[in-house]
Amino acid sequence: MKAMVLRAIGTPLQLEDRPDPQPGPGEIRVRVEACAVCRTDLHVVDGELANPKVPIVPGHEIVGIVETLGAGVSAPVPGTRVGIPWLGHTCGHCPYCASGHENLCDEPAFTGYTRDGGFATHVVADAAFAFPLPHCEDPVHTAPLMCAGLIGWRSLTMAGESRRIGLYGFGAAAHILAQVCRWQGREVYAFTRAGDDAAQAMARSLGACWAGSSDETPPEPLDAAIIFAPVGALVPSALRAVRKGGRVVCGGIHMSDIPQFPYAILWEERQLVSVANLTRHDAVEFLALAPQAGIRTTTTVYPLERANDALADLRAGRFQGAAVLVP
């Protein structure tokens, strides 16, 4: 197999030839068809997430074909197309797992962070955390659903039954979530970096009723806001934009420090919450909903060996939607 490997934090990934991995008990080996590039991969490579397993093969938005089953695995059968997300394994016995909050597991494994991921031709995954994709006809356009879509969906669930939704940072997650919101009949307000006309135009093309820069005030108070950009300064901005009783959801795994802000913008029962990881229930629910909502992802394709270019372009905001690596 071939893999793009992070040997040391802050260094470029290296293309390596490796023996094909063999699945252990409860695992499967998957031939990767496509792996989307997530901002979390940047956080891993740049050292913004603590204690990654190095060397590591990044990538956790994987679509591929099951090739080999490990001991004790009967499904998914070889030949099945599956999606493999960020959450790669849970202990199953800690208080969080026992209470239906496996996304907060005390002993988790994460694809592309603590176990090798999908920037490769093959990957080994826990069979219980690989999701059949019977409706998938295009692996490239499906790959971003496995994190941008799933975390977007969990974030929207945390936002509740809000009608006016603000999306801060109109990248991979927001361009998927905007389509879900419009399908559900919600109003979408898109916030981008100042001067990012392309992102604002894309937001409008996907049904946003308003698009502007993140320092602007929306024309109507928001019921909820979801922050995907890893910028702590957006938290006070979003709190000012939501109505009394509104909620601000931080949807990323990493964010710069949140600046001091006056209590007055949190008062009147506004809420500030975060989203961590996902559950298998989230995945089953969202992957069933996605074809009903008619979600179409906007993608820029890179060959596997250009993974460093994809990461650099994501860091610089040089494309709309999601980057996807294809072996």
UniProtKB/TrEMBL annotation:
InterPro entries: ADH-like_N, ADH_Zn_CS, ADH_Zn_typ-2, ER, GroES-like_sf, NAD(P)-bd_dom_sf. It comes from the Bacteria. Pfam families: ADH_N (PF08240). It is an enzyme of class 1 (oxidoreductase). Its cofactor is Zn(2+). Keywords: Metal-binding, Oxidoreductase, Zinc. CDD domains: CAD2 (cd08298). Residues 10-325 form the Enoyl reductase (ER) domain. Its EC number is 1.1.1.1. GO terms for molecular function: alcohol dehydrogenase (NAD+) activity. NCBIfam families: adh_fam_2. Belongs to the zinc-containing alcohol dehydrogenase family. This is alcohol dehydrogenase. It comes from Labrys monachus.
